[in-house]
Design goal:
It is a single chain. The chain is mainly alpha-helical and 159 residues long. The protein is 70% helix and 8% strand. The chain contains six helices and two strands. α4 packs antiparallel against α5 and α5 crosses α6. The longest helix has 30 residues. Keywords: Membrane, Transmembrane, Transmembrane helix. This is DUF697 domain-containing protein.
Length: 159
């Protein structure tokens, strides 16, 4: 596993630390749970379950890095970052609500919400792993500063 340091000359590869490798494995283990949460057949409950999976993931990730977990801070950061990918977050809500339409709506949401849940969990994990690796906490993560990295990782996860 290779991580990256951003330098003025571009991106410089560096070997991932043991803890970072463990964090990446943890992130990958939560992605299927977030995808599965997208299959909850009740409109909007699916999004609440995805958020719950992501909160549990961040709690475990913060424990790995010995960072005090703040559920309120985590919820606030998740909401701010999801808002940065507005078309995807709007699509998530629309596809969730489509579950109320028999057959067609459920089929459309069945094909999209799991992917969006997994992609948002991946992007969230990449942001927090990078932040915690640099010594950050929930209190000093500025969603505005990591928004473009989150968007980049979200798009990468959808490929």
């Amino acid at each position: 596993m290779v991580a990256h340091n951003e330098t003025s000359a571009g991106v410089e590869p560096r070997p991932a630390s043991g803890r970072e490798q463990e964090a990446l494995a943890l992130m990958r283990s939560y992605m299927p749970w977030a995808a599965g949460a997208g299959l909850v057949p009740v409109p909007l409950l699916d999004m609440a379950v995805i958020a719950g999976v992501q909160l549990k993931f961040l709690a475990r990730l913060s424990a790995l890095y010995d960072v005090p977990f703040s559920e309120n801070q985590a919820k606030s950061i998740i909401a701010a970052l999801l808002g940065s990918v507005v078309p995807a977050s709007i699509a998530t809500t629309v596809f969730s609500l489509l579950k109320g339409i028999p057959l067609l709506g459920f089929a459309a949401s069945f094909l999209t919400l799991p992917a969006l849940g997994a992609a948002s969990t991946y992007a969230l994990g990449k942001v927090f792993i990078q932040h915690f690796e640099s010594g950050g906490t929930f209190l000093n993560l500025d969603p505005q500063k990591v928004r473009s990295y989150y968007q980049e990782q979200f798009e990468q996860a959808q490929k």
